[in-house]
C-alpha cells in the first residue's frame, strides 16, 4: 500500500473553492491516517451519508475530473478511485444508472488491485461498503429491465465480487475496522447468487472455501457470521439437508441482533418450517400451516399452499412447505385410526375420514399415501391389498417425528 503524506497533496492545483478543497483534503487525510470510517463517508452513493451532505455533492459533480491531478504520481490509483466516485455522483444526480454502474464497476476493479498490496486491511470496511452499493445498483438496473437472472450488470457484478472474494482469500490478514473482509465478501457474493437463483455456483463457492470460511468465522463479528449462516441454512434447504439447515439457521438466529426485527423475521421465516419438519410446531407464526399439521386438515394445508404460493416461491421455501404435507397426512391418519379404535382399519373407514374433509381419494391414491408414510418411517404397519385393509403396529403405529428425522 502506497504511503502518503499530507504535504504531498497538490493544493495549488485545486480551484479556490473552499468546499471542494475541503473534500479533497479530507479524502487525502483519510488515506494518510488510514481512517476507513472517514473514507466510507467520502466515497458513498448514499447522499444522506456522504461527507458534506447534498450541498457538497452538488458542487462536486461540477468538478472536472480530467482537469487536474490532486494526488502525487505514486498514488494515482487513489486519485482514480476518487474521480470514479465523482463521475458516479454526476450520473447518479442525472438518474443515469447505467453510467453510474460503469463508474461503480471501475471502483471495484481498483479495490481488487488495492487488496493485492500489503497493509491494505484498513480499507476492508470501505471495500465491503462499495461491494454492497454495487450489488444494490446492479439489482436496481435489473429490476428496471425485469430480467435479474439475465441482467448484464448483475452478471458483471457477480464476476467482480468473485474477484474481490478471491483477492481477500489470497491475504493472510483480512480483518480491518472490526470486519472480516473474506466473510463479508462471501456474504455479498451469496446474496447476488441467491438473487439469480444460481444455487449451484453458491454451493461451489462454499465448498471451494470451506476450510478458509471455517477459520475466518471464528474471528468474524456476529453480524457477518449471522448472515453467512442464514444463507448457508437456505443452501442446505435446497440440498434437502434439513438437519444442516436447522443447525445453520438456529445458529444464525442466536447470532442475530435482537434489535433488528427484520433480520430476525427473515431467519425465522425459514427456521420455523424446518423445525416443523422435526415436529416442533410454532405457537403464533405460521398459524394456519401449524394448525393443518397439528390436526391433519388437508384442505387447510392446500389452501395455505395456494394462497401463499407466490411468497413461498419468491423466498425459495415452497418445496420445504410441500415436504410438510406428509406430516399433515400423518396427523390425519392418526385421527382416523384413533377414532376407529382398532389396529386393522379398512380402506372404507379411511375414506369416511376423507369424506368429512370433502376430499375424494381413490384406493390407488390412498395406497400411495400410505406407502410414502411407511417408507419415510412415519407409520409402522402394512397394507393388505386383497382385503383393502391397513394393519398398523399395536404398540407404536406412529413413531415420534423427532426420531424419524434423526
Description of the molecule:
By secondary structure, the chain is mainly alpha-helical. It has helices spanning 18-32, 36-42, 53-60, 76-93, 97-115, 124-145, 152-169, 181-195, 199-208, 210-217, 222-238, 242-255, 261-277, 287-295, 298-307, 309-314, 318-323, 325-340, 347-356, 363-375, 401-404, and strands spanning 175-176, 179-180, 344-346, 381-384, 389-392. The chain has 2 domains: 18-220; 290-403, Winged helix-like DNA-binding domain superfamily/Winged helix DNA-binding domain (Arc Repressor Mutant, subunit A), CATH 1.10.10.10. It contains 21 helices and 5 strands. Strands 3-5-4 form a 3-stranded antiparallel sheet. Helix 5 packs parallel to helix 7 (152-169), helix 8 (181-195) runs antiparallel to helix 9 and helix 11 (222-238) packs antiparallel against helix 12. Residues 5-16 have low confidence and may be disordered.
Q: What's the short story on this structure?
A:
This is PCI domain-containing protein 2. This protein has helices at 18-32, 36-42, 53-60, 76-93, 97-115, 124-145, 152-169, 181-195, 199-208, 210-217, 222-238, 242-255, 261-277, 287-295, 298-307, 309-314, 318-323, 325-340, 347-356, 363-375, 401-404, and strands spanning 175-176, 179-180, 344-346, 381-384, 389-392.
Global geometry: elongated
The largest sheet is: 3 strands, antiparallel
Average pLDDT for all residues: 87
Estimate the strand proportion: under 5%
Number of domains: 2
Pairing-aware structural class of the strands and helices?
mainly alpha
Distance between the termini: 52 Å
